[in-house]
Design a protein that fits this description.
It is built from 15 helices and twelve strands. The protein has helices at residues 29-35, 51-70, 88-102, 119-130, 148-154, 177-191, 215-218, 271-309, 320-323, 328-331, 349-358, 368-371, 378-382, 387-390, 404-417, and strands at 17-18, 82-85, 110-114, 134-138, 159-163, 199-203, 222-226, 237-241, 314-315, 339-343, 361-362, 393-397. The longest helix has 39 residues, at 271-309. It is α/β, with parallel strands linked by helices. The strands form three sheets. It has a seven-stranded mixed sheet with strand order 2-8-7-6-5-3-4, sandwiched between helices. Helices cover 39% and strands 12% of the residues. It folds into two domains: 17-27 and 288-417, Aspartate Aminotransferase, domain 1; 29-279, Type I PLP-dependent aspartate aminotransferase-like (Major domain) (Aspartate Aminotransferase, domain 2, 3-Layer(aba) Sandwich). Strand 5, helix 6 and strand 6 form a beta-alpha-beta unit. The protein is globular, with a radius of gyration of 22 Å. The protein binds pyridoxal-5'-phosphate. Pyridoxal-5'-phosphate binds at residues 87-89, 118, 120, 165, 169, 203, 205-206, 226, 228, 237, 368-369.
């Protein structure tokens, strides 16, 4: 069933309570302001040699520099390591397919992914499998942590890429990316010292808002970002590609044509969106610490109050009860502060979703990409949860504009709904 209705919201003021920030975020006013001139007076094509073109190219260059610095790059040459794409989905595709294309001397290359990656990774590896790539799926435990011991066992000389997301979009579990990159590096040193493989990619789309995304601290070779999860515009993403120890990029383009993005992504740059992305990145870094603390507190408050309303509720993923006594930095090494995936025993998620929507509360039953199709969440399935629990679970995700007042209001409404 595809569910579609909007009669309960005031479409002029959109005055419902939005608790679906993991699906997308509104564009911040600062971002809008930064973008506007690039729709009107600064309309040049960055590839043009004249003034208008150079003005647009300067905006793209400055934006690239801002994003690059935000992920720990400093040397001017490193800035070429950030490639703007049309979405994070495209960036994930570029990482997976681009690495495989480059590695075509390896007979039947292998990619290792976790079982709880975003669809843009899982469906891409399914497609690559059909084309002869070997795919190894790393299982997760019941909280969503990748079983890293198993990683050591499945790495081999055919492995060209390991792709493990930084933080999950449905349950918020944060993977130990530094530990994983160390395992890969140690394995490489011992078993494949002369090769660039295996490379390590992480999808940091949900993580960027709250976690340190310095690529050197994390030890990743490739990293995906998206603007619309961090108060930037939709339809713009980026892929970081470590080109430090190779004169060549370790990746081949999926879209060919002009020479934009250092020949890795042809097509006239979406200048306004790129400028907006950079502004969103700048703001996110500035607000990261404060927002992490504010949202953690809100989430814990919401959770405690919700338990008073309905004591049977449980968290899918890392439990808040076990983490709320931790210091913020320890807490966010285990789970994102803003995502609460909650099991409501004896209630159907589908029914609740509709009732919440009628009460002007926007939440979701999982990943936005899948929720319209009412499919049981593959992420919750990978945790080993029974189908009946999955069908009774909803995702609440908080964000920059979530207030205590809103949460109090939502709790009142939930009390009515669960009566
Ligand atoms: N990766 C993760 C973890 C996500 O949450 C999303 C968003 O749905 C994506 C990738 C895809 O992002 P985009 O909508 O920019 O393609």
């Amino acid at each position: 069933m595809v569910y579609r209705h909007n009669f309960s919201y005031d479409s002029k003021t959109n005055k419902g309570i939005y608790l679906d920030y993991a699906a997308t975020t509104p564009v911040a006013s600062e971002v809008m302001k930064a973008m506007m001139p690039y729709f009107s007076e600064k309309y040049g094509n960055p590839s043009s040699v004249h003034y208008f073109g150079q003005q647009a190219m300067a905006a793209v260059d400055e934006s690239r520099e801002i994003v690059a610095k935000a992920i720990g790059l400093s040397a001017v040459n490193d800035f070429r390591s950030v490639i703007f794409t049309g979405s994070a989905t495209e960036a994930n595709n570029l990482a997976l397919r681009g690495v495989v294309k480059f590695s075509d001397k390896i007979l039947k290359p292998k990619i290792i992914v976790s079982t709880i990656e975003h669809e843009s990774v899982l469906r891409t590896v399914k497609d690559l499998e059909k084309a002869g790539v070997e795919i190894e799926y790393l299982p997760v435990d019941d909280k969503g942590f990748v079983q890293i011991e198993k990683l050591k066992k499945v790495l081999d000389k055919k492995t060209v890429l390991v792709s493990i997301m930084y933080a999950n979009n449905e349950i918020g579990t944060v993977q130990p990316i530094k530990k994983i990159s160390k395992i890969i590096k140690d394995w490489k040193l011992e078993n494949n010292p002369d090769s660039i493989y295996p490379l390590f990619h992480t999808d940091a789309v949900q993580a960027f808002q709250y976690l340190n995304c310095n690529v050197f601290d994390l030890g990743v070779d490739l990293m995906t970002l998206s603007a619309h999860k961090i108060y930037g515009p939709k339809g713009i993403g980026a892929l970081y590609i470590n080109n430090k120890d190779s004169s060549n990029f370790k990746i081949l383009p999926l879209i060919t044509g002009g020479h934009q993005e250092f020949d890795l992504r042809a097509g006239t740059e979406n200048v306004a969106a790129i400028v907006g992305f950079a502004k969103a990145v700048e703001l996110a870094v500035l607000l990261r610490k404060k927002e992490t603390e504010r949202i953690s507190k809100l989430a814990v408050y919401f959770w405690r109050e919700l338990k008073k309303i309905y004591s049977k509720v449980e968290i899918n993923g890392v439990d808040l009860e076990k983490t709320d006594f931790l210091k913020t930095e320890d807490y966010i090494s285990l789970r994102l502060p803003n995502i609460l995936n909650i099991y409501f025993p004896n209630y159907s998620a589908e029914d609740l979703l509709i009732k919440f929507d009628m009460a002007q509360i926007a939440v979701s039953a999982g990943s936005a990409c899948l929720s319209r199709f009412s499919k049981p969440s593959p992420v919750l399935q990978a945790l080993g949860l029974p189908l009946q629990r999955i069908k009774s679970s909803l995702r609440f995700s908080f964000g920059r504009f979530t207030t205590k007042e809103e949460i109090v209001n939502v709790l009142k409404k939930i009390k009515n709904i669960l009566k």
